Amino acid sequence: MASKGNRKLLVPVDETSDGSVKVFDFALDQIYKKGDKVHLLHCIPPGQHFMFLSGMGMEDVLMDYDDKTKAEMEKEAREMLNSKFVSKFEDRKVGDIICKRAKDLDAMVVMGKHPKGKVEEFFSGSSTNYCVKHCKQPVLILHCEH
Known about the structure:
Elements: E1 8-13, H1 19-31, E2 37-42, H2 58-62, H3 67-84, H4 94-105, E3 108-113, H5 118-124, H6 127-134, E4 139-143
Parallel strand pairs: 1-2, 1-3, 3-4
């Protein structure tokens, strides 16, 4: 890991909770020092990569176009996402992607653990648990409550 003031922090973020904001704020307020680099990593889980237009202000940009043109633009955007991003991470767990990125950056991972029910965690797993068990870089876990 880099010396004090030249460290690298990797903060995985998602859009599903306020936990990412809390973790990011904590990283900046409590860990970050002048000269450090903070890397944000957003992994889009399989099946959610078509939701990108919602909430990004694209509705205002697209409202001037007819339905056919909007559909064509959305199709092109989806194809671009699939070809350039989604395909790079097929069949990989989000935790695996986080660990690999941390290793590539030689960065400390600062992430949140969101409470899940036992059944939900059994079926979907936990990226946080995966990183704690498999990441070779330091991992700091913050407990984020709903």
